Amino acid sequence: MTNQLPLRSTINPNYIVDIGIECHVQLKTNSKLFCGCSNDAREAEPNTLICPICLGMPGTLPVLNKAAVELAIRAGLALNAEIASDTKFDRKNYFYPDLPKGYQITQYDEPIVGQGEIAVHMSDSSFKVGITRAHLEEDAGKLTHPEGVDYSLVDLNRAGTPLLEIVSEPDIHSPAEAKAYTQELYMRMLYAGVSDVDLYHGNMRFDVNVSVRKKDSKTLGTRSETKNLNSFRSVEKAAEYEINRQIELLEKGEKIVQETRGYDDSTGKTISQRSKEEAMDYRYFKEPDLPPLQIAEQMKQAIAKNSPIMVGDIRAKLKEADLSQTIITAILNQPKLADLQQDVIATNSQYAKPVANWLSGEVLRIVGEEGFNWDKFQLDSDRLVALAQMVEVGDLSSTNAKIVLSAMITTDTPPEDIAKDKGLIQMSDTNQLGTIVDQVIAANPQAVKDVESGEAKAIGFLVGQVMKESKGQANPQMVQEMLKSKLK
Amino acid sequence: MNKIKDSDIKHLGVLARIGIDEAIAKELAPQLMDILDYVSRLQSIDTSGVEITSQVTGLVGIWREDEVKPSLISREELLSNTLETEGGYIKVRKVL
Amino acid sequence: MSESKSEYLDLPIPELVAKVRNQEVTAEFLVNQSLELIKANQDYHAILDVNQSALDQAKAIDKAIADGETLGVLSGVPFIAKDNFLTKNTKTTAASKMLDNFQAPYQASAIDKLEAAGAIMVAKANLDEFAHGSSTENSAYGPTKNPHDSSKVPGGSSGGSAAAVALNITPFALGTDTGGSIRLPASFCGVVGYKPTYGLVSRYGVIAMASSTDVIGPITRSVSDSAYVLDVLAGQDVNDSTTIKRQDSYLINQDGNKKRDLKGIKFGIIKEHLEMIEDKDVLANIKAAIDKLKAAGADIKEVSLSNSEASLPVYYILAPAEISSNLARYDGVKYGFSSKQAKDLLDTYLLSRGSGFGSESIRRILTGTYVLSSGYQDAYYKQAQKVRSLIVKEYEDIFADVDFLIGPTAATTAFDLGAKPDPISMYKSDYMTIAANLAGIPAISIPSGNVGNLPVGLQLQGPQGQDKQLLDVAHVIGELI
Ligand SMILES: [Mg+2]
Ligand SMILES: [Zn+2]
Q1: Which residues on B lie below 8 Å from C312 (Cβ)?
Q2: In angstroms, rounded to a whole number, what is the distance separating the alpha carbons of residues C79 and C226?
Q3: Does residue C409 come out as left (phi exceeding 0), alpha (psi in the -120 to 50 range) or beta?
Q4: Which of C383, C394, C467 would you mutate first to test chain B, the one with the most B CBs within 10 A?
Q5: Which residues are in the CB-under-5-Å shell of ion ligand 2?
Q6: pTM for the whole structure
Q7: Angstrom distance (rounded) from CA A363 to CA A344
Q8: Going by DSSP bridges, is the β-strand pair A86-87/A293-294 parallel, antiparallel, or unpaired?
């Protein structure tokens, strides 16, 4: 977790911060929004997933992908938002080399998803954020600027990819809340199954609108929009930087300029890109090449029925098992882990906590490693319960349990076998332990004397010696108790 | 009436990304003014309560199933009209 | 041209196809004949590019027929396409410097359908640049001349297509009609020009002008040939989401129609159109035609399209708006003219578009940009869309009262080249045709004799989706006048 408290404390308390966030989510369809080209451009060579439509060739026309509409509706449901009965597409006109037609097909005044509201959870609190709207639109291509040359390069593989742009109300009031909101969106899109939510490949991109106002002011301040952030952390950092920049300006008696800004990850600073005076005039108008849509009640209901369980419901279940907000949030990061946790709660709720600690710690760390292959993931709830039981009866130390656990993730071997194989089973047999304890007492008269004269620290040394003799397999608690009783 | 100055033409030219020099702006300004004056007569028609028409087919909900149908046209052919390419990319002048 | 040659290309299309199928004449012969006629008529400048593969295509058809294969309903029929249809075997320029050397990587659905039916595209026809015009004078490659008088315009924007059919180069040509661009040149060149119901023919692969009014249609010598070609073209296309269901057949039943008269059919004459006819002789011609309809039992009454006058301003707001957006893709980046003088990206845009587009296209782009821009959109664009609703409604009311509308296609016969240098007087050439595009209804221009040596066009309009009914009645009237 990043240091949320210090961040908050750096903000001048005489100001209220208002943040609204626009989030572009790439929908996981097979084909693009308006043509049959593949929607997965991650590994493709430049301009190999394109067709005349992607290239904006003369005479081409868009044909809407039904699955994108369905996923948008599903995402809308995950945002507790209204789904429009009537919706349509519009053209947003501007020139850029990554925009082949010279306009983007998007939704202007009749978005497919209307108002909604979601609860956002932080480690010690939660708050509500209003959803203004969410609309379907096509992504642009990619423009790269090689160093040291006077040209740029255009790859249109991504052009036409379906996006859902989710717009929030300015209900977010700190950088930490901004981060939590983006994580909440991530979670909801993940569980709704509408996106691969691969942030590294830009599946979610955020534009953060920040403004500040004096404590007693009722109206929002002038805002800046920092565009194209691609991680939760950069959302938090950019918001923090913007808040402080704006407050500093106001404190100096200067005015905030409404503008678009970019964020430089290496410096943590935002940079002005375009002021409102040079703002674009997008000349929106209804897309004449696409008839409007009517979303029948029947279609909405069918999608609602077939949608996966909402993340909010899962969160509630985990909360009932008395898990902490931080652990819940960590587990929810991986739906497969959340499934396991739910299984354990349903079948062996007494082990919910140790399992939650493992899932949110060791397991999450391993599956979160670069290049982890989910196809090899074999962890199941039965073996997690068995592992918890071994710790409970003292067969396994909690430290060794983690070693066994990490070996369980990509195998189907029972924890007992792994522990035995690795020689991690604790020695809990009184006779066997007694022999070693006696040997250690005999070999360390000075330490024995110290213990007997009341120097408590010396017992730790003796326990250590027993552990060493047993090659780490002795149950340290039992050893301590034995030593105490023998030296009394 | 619509007063279109040379500078308005230049502004429209920037919006529409059409380079217009002084001489052409001078020529276009009165022409555009005439056209806009001519079409402005619509503004006197009472359209209160009238919905807009942007399409006449009455079609709704035209879509296709989500199937990948890759283009059968090669990248080379698709980019054969492109002035400059490099390694399969389209080359453009730097964005200022 | 020799007698024996025109003997074939003069035939009604179904008869020509029959002769190709029974090997009385070869497709190769017909294509050769068309190619020779293109050469012989170069002075009219109807043609921009010739399909070098046309003869090979013809030979393949002849071979298939010789092998006993049954081929499509247009087997061996040469045709010409307006140069805003994307075609694989020729350049596609839209008569613009912007697309001077453009080689399309795919082909328009309409061309695919015609080729699948055995037709052979022999050439691409001249047009006003990007179809922006009413005279074919706005071509970057120079104007087309009227075959009846080479000092006159052929009308536009499908002027090359209409002139080619009038010159008998091919039995039919394809045009596009956004505000009258098929009917006006058909009227000026003395041929039949058919504008289908909006959405009946796929626009896929046709360079867009104004997407909400663009239609594709045939230009032929007779109504029945137009119906015959439409029967191949019409229908839904998965690549064009605005295409509509077709009627079963558009073919004119020749026997049935011989017996048919016009008894009980109600025609309306748009009063406002009649009043706008500038030329007395044209008015007399139209009135004479109407008298013939009356004599054949037609029920004729005057109707009012009170928003007639508004249709031009509506169109010249909506069309430029859509044009400004549709032409944004010509940016010097992916294809098309790209200025080599550009130093940065903005330069690429400004220089490529500034010199790639001709002056009328630039006027329309700027007008469209203006009417869509913030602060003006409500007063211009939205208001025009509302008045468009009024026009649609008025047509509905009229067609509740009459079956078809009849009147002039244009206020004049073909005018002199260079006669209309100012944009608005040129725009007004479309006065009678434009409302049909705004309402999306079918309309046709058929020859109605001459005034002097210049043809007059009679325009018929019908209710949306009733293309078959309109063609049937136009066929009867065509035989009558
Ligand atoms: Mg957007
Ligand atoms: Zn594509």
Answers
A1: 38
A2: 13
A3: alpha
A4: C383
A5: A 35, 37, 51, 53-54
A6: 0.91
A7: 15
A8: antiparallel
pLDDT tens-digit readout, A215-231:
999 999 999 999 999 99
Tokens linked to B37: 């004056």
Alpha-carbon distance of C431 to C447, in angstroms, equals: 18
Question: Partners for B (CB, 8 Å, 3+ pairs)?
Answer: A, C
Q: How far apart are CA C361 and CA C131, in angstroms?
A: 9
Among C54, C64, C1, C62, CA closest to C31 = C54
| Cβ-contact C375, C292 below 8 angstroms | no
Whole-number Å distance, alpha carbon A133 to ligand 1 midpoint, is: 12
Q: Do strands A162-168 and C47-50 pair parallel, antiparallel, or not at all (unpaired)?
A: unpaired
SS3 category, A382: helix
pLDDT digits (tens, 9 = 90+) for C217-274: 999 999 999 999 999 999 999 999 999 999 999 999 866 555 568 999 999 999 999 9
Provide the strand spans (E) within A332-471.
none
To the nearest whole Å, the CA of B10 is away from the closest chain C CA by: 10
DSSP string, C219-254: EESSHHHHHHHHHHHBS-BTTBTT--PPPS-----H
In 3D space, the residue among C414, C456, C453 whose CA is nearest the CA of residue C159 turns out to be C414
Strands (E), C278-340: 299-303
Measure the CA–CA gap between C273 and C432, rounded to whole angstroms. 6
CB atoms within 10 A of CB C213: 25
Q: Look at phi and psi of residue A184 and say left if phi exceeds 0, alpha if psi is from -120 to 50, else beta.
A: alpha
Q: Closest approach of chain A CAs to the CA of C472, in angstroms?
A: 30
Nearby residues of C174 by Cβ (< 8 Å), 6 or more positions away: C79, C80, C81, C82, C85, C110, C111, C114, C161, C216, C217, C218, C219
Q: Which ligand is nearest to the CA of A53?
A: 2
Ligand closest in space to the Cα of A24: 1
Instruction: Please identify which residue in the block is written with the tokens 């244009």.
Output: C410
Active-site residue C181, yes or no?
A: yes
Q: A372: alpha, beta or left, given left = phi > 0 and alpha = psi -120 to 50?
A: beta
Distances (CA, A) of A425 to A355, A408, A473, C158: 19, 16, 6, 90
**Global ipTM:** 0.97
Could you tell me the distance, in angstroms and rounded to a whole number, from the CA of residue A240 to the centre of ligand 2? Answer: 40
Are the C-beta atoms of C115 and C15 separated by less than 8 Å?
no
